[in-house]
Amino acid sequence: MDYRQAHPEVTVLDPPDAIQHLRNRQSMLQDVADINLSNSYGRVGVPKQLVITSDDASSIPDAVTQAGIKLPLVAKPLLADGSSKSHELSIAYDPESLQKLDPPLVLQEFVNHGGVMFKVYIIGEAIKVVRRFSLPDVSKRELTKNSGVFPVPRVSCAAASAEDADLDPRVAEIPPYPLLERLAKELRRRLGLHLFNLDIIRDHGNPDRFYVIDINYFPGYGKMPEYEYMFTDFFLSLGQRKYKKYALASC
Ligand SMILES: Nc1ncnc2c1ncn2[C@@H]1O[C@H](COP(=O)(O)OP(=O)(O)OP(=O)(O)O)[C@@H](O)[C@H]1O
Ligand SMILES: [Mg+2]
User: Fold this and answer.
1) How far is the C-alpha of 115 from the C-alpha of 184, rounded, in Å?
2) Can you cite an annotated GO cellular component (predicted)?
3) How large is the ipTM?
4) How is the chain split into domains, by residue range?
5) Does residue 115 come out as left (phi exceeding 0), alpha (psi in the -120 to 50 range) or beta?
6) 135 alpha carbon to ligand 1 midpoint, in Å?
7) According to the annotation, is 216 in a ligand binding site?
């Protein structure tokens, strides 16, 4: 803030406090929940979730029952600070094993989505969607058979791209652009950020229902095809905006 005031000539793209908002998995998804976007192209929300801050893991099964959220649950460290620990996610299949978890956490309902997710990159006003492999569905049978807490492998970061894979079109179809554009526009405004991405999954039982499960600030753009062109356009648009401002001020 001080720096910004002392140097009005410097363009601060995304302010640190707005970026900070994404370092907590609870506050990160709050705006998506508030927007509660629904139009003729579909609906976008957040999986039902519960935040556990108490150190006493033995109270988690009761808290889950009271919140009415359903197993299996994805347990995510509350802080998403980029450390490798903050990416250590697990899946819990039965109430008993919830006591083995290590708070502070966000417990999120696991949504079956057919093993494919969408990384939606936002660069200013531009959007690029990339398909990635994700976790496979959990069947009712598996849910009754499995018990325990299992680490979640970082499937979406694996080298294999889902772009050219032979996938069920109902699972692989990119979410409708008009829906993503509305969401991106609202989020840009509410978050006060220009450079971020959304991890989105489609409910396997309901193709019009989408869930945002993660938002990252300045994600690895290297994995995004054509990022060079999109960044060039973005920087040019910033330059033009600044030029217009100066031109108006000096009139
Ligand atoms: N609610 C959910 N339902 C189903 N699968 C989920 C859910 N949340 C997360 N996953 C799966 O777990 C993966 C990692 O989750 P998430 O993106 O929230 O964590 P992360 O630590 O930020 O991981 P990454 O850096 O790999 O994106 C997702 O890509 C997806 O495959
Ligand atoms: Mg993610």
Assistant:
1) 24
2) cytoplasm
3) 0.97
4) 3-250
5) left
6) 8
7) yes
Ligand nearest to the CA of 69: 1
Please provide the size of the chain in residues.
251
At 203, the amino acid letter reads D
* Radius of gyration over every alpha carbon of the chain, rounded to an integer in angstroms: 20
Residue 110 annotated as part of some ligand binding site: yes
- Phi then psi for residue 113, to 5 deg, are -140, 15
pLDDT tens-place string over residues 217-240: 999 998 888 999 999 999 999 888
Q: Is the CB of 90 under 6 A from ligand 1?
A: no
Using most ligand atoms within 8 A of CB, pick from 89, 106, 155 the residue to mutate for ligand 1: 89
Query: 125: annotated binding-site residue?
Result: no
Q: Is 49 in the pocket of ligand 1 (CB under 6 A)?
A: no
Query: Domain 3-250 adopts which CATH fold?
Result: D-amino Acid Aminotransferase; Chain A, domain 1 (3.30.470)
Q: Which of 11, 2, 10, 19 is nearest to 217 (CA)?
A: 19
In this prediction the pTM is 0.94
Q: What number does the ligand 1 atom closest to the CA of 108 have?
A: 1
Calculate mean pLDDT across residues 27-32.
97
106 lines ligand 1 (CB under 6 A): no
pLDDT over threshold 60, residue 159: no
Provide the edge-to-edge strand list for the sheet that holds 38-39: 38-39, 42-45, 209-217, 195-202, 116-123, 126-133
